[in-house]
Amino acid sequence: MLSLHLISQDKRKEKAVHSHPPSTLVLNPDELGCNPEPGMDLAVKLGIGHLEIRSAEGANVVMLPTDRLRRVRALADERGLAVAALASPLWKWCRPEAKPGRVDTFGFPTQVPPGERLGWIERSIEAARILGAPIVRVFSHLRVEPELTEEFAGDPLVIRALDAANTAGVRLLLENEPVCTVAHAAPLLEVLERYHRQGLALWLDVANLHEVGQANPATIRALAPYVAYVHVKDYRPTADGGRAFCPAGEGVVPYDQVLPLLHAVCPTLQYALETHVRHTPADALTRGTVFLRAAVPGGLA
Question: Residue-wise over 182-207: b if at least 16 C-beta within 10 A, else e?
Answer without folding.
Answer: bbebebbbebbeebeeeebbbbbbbb
